[in-house]
Specification:
The protein is mainly α and 138 residues long. It has a single domain, classed as Orthogonal Bundle (Cytochrome Bc1 Complex, Chain D, domain 2), CATH 1.10.760.10. It contains five helices and no strands. Helix 2 packs across helix 5 and helix 4 crosses helix 5. 21% of the residues are buried.
Length: 138
């Protein structure tokens, strides 16, 4: 690359960083804690050896790009996100109540989207079941 091309690329990169910085300004790497009331939310899904299956397709479509195929937080979009996506197989995530995970899927927090208007309550509970299964699969 010549100097001019590098300079143009640097200017474009700088402009992109300035443009997107406000979007991520409040997305500091900190604990994301659901309100205590979320712990009382109960899944309508009876857990069994197959209850995770309906959530798999939703996970692959909505979650895998950031959280990765196995849920480790290493999806292809993860490198561009601040904070980085959670490792869904981690003790920190798996120790949360089903209600807390459902609340997070419903509410979202930048850079994670809210899925309240995207997926039904049933589908979000299916995602919780799938997230629980990630720990068992790996």
């Amino acid at each position: 690359m010549n100097k001019r091309t590098l300079m143009v690329a640097a200017i474009i990169l700088g402009a992109c960083l300035l443009f997107f910085q406000p979007i991520f300004a409040n997305a500091l790497p900190e604990d994301w804690v659901a309100p205590a009331s979320a712990d009382s939310l109960q899944s309508p899904i009876k857990s069994n050896s197959d209850s995770w299956m309906p959530g798999e397709a939703i996970y692959k479509t909505a979650c895998g790009v950031c959280h990765g195929v196995s849920g480790f937080g290493d999806g292809i979009a993860a490198v561009a996100l601040n904070p980085r996506p959670a490792d869904l197989t981690s003790k920190v995530v798996q120790d949360q109540s089903d209600g807390a995970l459902f609340w997070k899927l419903t509410t979202g927090k930048t850079p994670m989207a809210s899925y309240k208007d995207v997926y039904t309550d049933q589908q979000r509970w299916e995602l919780v079941e799938y997230i629980r299964n990630l720990e068992k699969k790996d």
